[in-house]
Amino acid sequence: MRNWSSLRALSVLAAVSGAALLCRPVGAQPRWKLQYFFDQRDSSFHISDLQCPSALRCVAAGVILYNDGRGKGAVVSTNDGGAHWSLQNVKESPLSLFFLNESLGWMVTDQGLWTTGDGGATWKKLDAPKWMMRVYFRDPTHGFAVGSTVYETVDGGKKWVSVTSAQPKNMSYESIAFRGQYGIAAGIPVKAGVPAILESQDGGKHWQAPNAGFYRPVKVGLLQGEIAFVDRSQGSVRWMPGGTKPETIFDERNRVVTDFAQLPVPGKLKMLRSTDLKSWQEMDVDYRAVAQGAVLAALDASHVWVATDTGMILQLSPSKN
After folding, report:
1. How many domains, the chain?
2. pLDDT per residue over 201-232, tens digit each?
3. Is the pTM above the cut of 0.85?
């Protein structure tokens, strides 16, 4: 059995005005250094998601917004750890990304689903339902998607079927994650009394609402390999070590802790760290980093990135001091 107390002692939590993530300490006091900045006249790059499936490969996707009201989808990627970035236009507006490995990935857009087999260099559109929000693949062929309900595919995303046991009305699911056979889909109830969470204990074959007294997450994902989520009603981060009852690991009401947070105006990007999941200290962040929201991606302790909705990508690196 895994020693959870020992694992926790090796962890660092970074919380952004808009994001939360766990990673290992890196020795010297780390800081966030700017790696990429979209700086084109009369436009801005709103990055909606960032995935880094390897130390060398990172892919970010979003929409370039022009001052005249136009917008176009775009993907920016690196294959050398962030030394160089390549920007390409895409035909639809990206919402989220999922990569199974360095090469194979999927991109959810406002009009459907695309897949790549070369790490985001080229994309091919799949025949998938519109208005998906996010996908999660357990292997190259078996995957799930969330939106108005939960969908399942067994052919890599070419064909999708609605999961009949996950059909509550007036619901919009935004996130999905698995730890082994345990899966969780979460979102925003459109109507009061509708469950905000669905759980699966058998790898996604069956889904049901958990017992009463659960929470209203806006984002679910894996933290130290465990299910974690942002509790919308409490403004806190909770995780479930070993599949146990959710435990609060971050709760500062004066901060917005969510990958999808939107503040009234762009503010200074703030990152926090902890060695015990109880006390938190701010980290050094490049002074140019401002954002309304941010998303994070981590491969291991030495390869952690954050992308902002203002077109910036920063990497965590040890201080030289």
Report:
1. 1
2. 899 988 887 654 455 555 666 555 566 676 65
3. no
User: pLDDT (tens digit, 9 = 90+) per residue, 20-56?
Assistant: 343 333 345 678 899 999 999 999 999 999 999 998 9
Structure tokens, 232: 């919308």
- Domain of residue 125 covers 4-318
| CATH code of the domain containing 107 | 2.130.10.10
